[in-house]
Prior knowledge:
Elements: H1 2-27, E1 33-38, E2 42-43, E3 47-54, E4 59-68, E5 71-79, E6 87-94, E7 105-117, E8 122-134, E9 140-143, E10 149-151, E11 155-163, E12 168-173, E13 176-179, E14 181-182, E15 193-199, E16 210-215, E17 221-225, E18 229-231, E19 237-242, H2 244-256, H3 268-293, E20 314-317, E21 321-327, E22 330-337, E23 340-343, E24 349-351, E25 356-363, E26 369-376, E27 379-386, E28 388-389, E29 396-397, E30 402-405, E31 417-423, E32 426-428, H4 430-433, H5 436-449
Amino acid sequence: MRFLRLTLLTIVVLGLAGAGAGWYLAGREAGPSITITSPDKFVGRSGPLAVAADSPTPVVAAQATLTQNGQSTQVASYAGDGTAQNQVSLSGTLGKTTQPALVNGRATLTVTASRQVFFGLRTVESSVTRELQVRLDPPRIAVTSIHHFINLGGAEFVVLRATPEDVEAGVRVGDTEYRAYPGSAVGLADPALRVAFFALKHDQDVNVRMSAFARDAAGNEATTPLEHQPTKKVFLNSRIPIDQRFLDRVVPAIASNTPDLKVDTSSPEGLLKGFLIINGDLRKKNGETITALAAKSQPKMLWTEAFAQMGNSQVESRFADRRTYFFEDKEIDRQVHLGFDLASVQQAPVHASNAGVVVFADFLGIYGNCVIIDHGLGVQSLYAHLSSIGTKVGDSVAKGQELGRTGATGLAGGDHLHFTILLQGVPVNPVEWWDQHWLQDRVIRKIKEAGGR
Length: 453
């Protein structure tokens, strides 16, 4: 009996010791993993809070607190609601509008979170802090250039004054923003000056609102109206008949060069359906690729004279032609042609319309073999349907340098060059850019009036 008592006592003591050790070790475990997505460095008048707490066991509580000059304000919190959640998100609004006591200066964001351990009998906590700069004063923006005349489907140039120096600035046309570049890109010495090309898209309201903006890293923004004179343009309507022979030639060729494109090329019905996919979905996807290349534009003006139209070429189709496609006299699709089709002899040499750097030289869906040149300040030129490409990405090219030869690759009915000018990814009418008088009046004049070269 005595031995049994000693055995039971030993078991109890060992159990208590084990429980105590477990309790102690559980208290030394790490709390939830905390990630602060937003804000990054700044707090303005209003901005998002985005925080996540992740844990291998249920999160029981989390909170975010903003502290400045000894005063703390709880911004967001979470208390367990009875459901076992191993991932918790905190969201809210940071800034003067929701924390009115904030002033310019430093502030600290503290996020704490706790989780269950030791069979839910104990909790452990973790904490993360982020030092922030409260920035409440709005930036300043002014338009310094004058006489802004813009055609529907065309482009214009503006000189802006934006302060402080670290703000982002540009022009907003409707919902589309056009980035401004430092004035030093065109030889302006004043660090507050910015320059930007902007467009009035072919399908926008000619009276759409245009304004210049400046926005800082805290989200504070200032805007001012951009005085301008828009001109409406009438674009052509074109009837484009296609036949089975055309489908037999273009659809399999585009499909074979576009691995992600799933079309049936084994039957006439499949080819027609494939054409509609190419003319619609692939056209849109190709446009997204072109828009993404705008981010590679250099922050300097790589050209000083008007762009050149393809030599000895005849215009077959103009910018923003409204095309209606017919197959066996039945309407099957409608699209807008955003460039100029220029024809010469078969496999005619294609030359760079101006100096720049090649940012694309490959097959591109409806455009076939395609070259895109960056000319700086968001301006790029596109050359499509080439039979061959004679340049590569990264090459610096001079105006008039050969890029390849004309052809009928992609969605082309015959040998020609499809050419367009892109403004931060937006196609604009090339006619203006071919005109030295337009360049002198709309661009060079404004640069010189601002003190540039």
